[in-house]
């Protein structure tokens, strides 16, 4: 979405377009997982700090499903832009994508700890993980405290 210009200061774009470009450039394994992820990043009940600004029916906390991707529109939130702000400044390594046409970062040069801020959960290799979301100001305070207290 960043490369396509779907930014907060521009109008929303069809979600199907974001999904197609993601599938074509970075993830050739089907559109369902991509759209489900885009939807989740737009739901304020799924993420403490949404990274996608969705327009249209993105579901409900009561498990109502979102509309099909052809009916919804999306763009990045200002916080997502902050997360990607230094992506073009060679702060991380880039590698060729699956077919060598596009370069993709090995990691995101995030300016805030998204994993801790928004939390995550999942199961892999028989182990469950659940990281609860945290307040961004409290995370910043914890980082500064850790920097000042080397023995912590």
Automatic annotation (TrEMBL):
The family database entries (PANTHER family) matched by this protein are listed as: DNA GYRASE SUBUNIT A, CHLOROPLASTIC_MITOCHONDRIAL, DNA GYRASE/TOPOISOMERASE SUBUNIT A
Membrane-crossing ranges are none
Q: What sort of enzyme, by top EC class, is this?
A: isomerase
The encoding gene is: gyrA
Protein's recorded name: DNA gyrase subunit A
Pfam families noted in UniProt: DNA_topoisoIV
Region of interest: Disordered: 1-23
Entry keyword annotation includes Cell membrane: no
The major lineage groups are:
Bacteria, Bacillati, Actinomycetota, Actinomycetes, Mycobacteriales
Q: Where is the Topo IIA-type catalytic domain?
A: 1-152
